[in-house]
Amino acid sequence: MKNNLTVHRTDERMYFLQRLLANRQFEADTHVFAPNVAVDLTSIRAVADGGIVVCGRLAEGVAEEAESRGIKIFNMMKDEGFQAVNSRLTAEGALLVMLERSLRSIEDSYVLVMGFGRMGAAVAKLLCKLNVRLAIATGSSQRPAYAFAKRVVPLSAFDFAPYDIIVNSVPYPIVSDAELMTMRQDALYIDLASKPAINLEYARYLGIDADIYPALPARTCPISAAVAMQEYILEVIK
Question: Can you list the domains of the chain with their CATH numbers?
Fold first, then answer.
């Protein structure tokens, strides 16, 4: 049996994943893409009929193309276990960004976490363990958030003036430019979503250290990220 494995090495974690899977045998033509990479039609057409694709995102038309050629798609971003690990690793990466870029120590900082889904909750849980002064903005029930923060606010009508660090996990624009003007110049804005919640260009014009940080585990803990992918792959491909 041939290895039949192609790991698309778009970042460092994929290099480690390839090493972890080097001695594994796969019966079908198997392609693995990083969770943040959208598999497009060109990529899916390079997979043999009846092959396997492991990924996190699909471009338009790819699912239909795969189905017509008997290609199995395993989406790791729809797996609860993988998402939990990925969120934890991303939260650790966000903490590293805070330590590297914030003008204040973590102990002296007041942090706002925007969004309380899986990602936002992971960030809040980690900061709570460190006794960081924390507020959470959520659009869902506020009760669970009070387990981590003394202050919980609606995901609207933002006033950023009190906060030294803002971490966003909401994957769409929700902050107006007028609200953005309440953010202090010495604040740090970290966006963990696929699309930023604020106008990043305007934030930088205002002098704010603001950026989007996609695929943080690939940059801050690539071996752990690769192990998480390996475990998922070996679980779904028997």
Answer: 5-78 (no CATH), 82-218 (3.40.50.720)
Strand partners for 50: none
Q: What is the mean pLDDT of residues 86-91?
A: 98
Query: Are the beta carbons of 106 and 98 closer than 8 angstroms?
Result: yes
Residue 146: exposed, middle, or buried by beta-carbon count in 10 A (0-12, 13-18, 19+)? exposed
Output phi, psi for 213, to 5 deg.
-125, 80
- Neighbouring C-alpha atoms within 13 Å toward the C-beta of 157: 2
Single-letter amino acid, residue 157: A
Residues 6+ apart with CB under 8 A from 158: 137, 175, 179, 182
| 163 HSE (CA, 13 A, CB side) | 25
Could you give phi then psi for residue 53, rounded to 5 degrees? -125, 130
Nearest of 191, 64, 175, 180 to residue 123 by alpha carbon: 191
Q: How far apart are CA 53 and CA 47, in angstroms?
A: 8
Tokens of 74: 């395993």
Two tokens, residue 69: 């050629």
CA–CA distance, 113 with 133 (Å, rounded to integer): 11
Q: Tens digits of per-residue pLDDT, 207-224?
A: 999 999 999 999 999 999
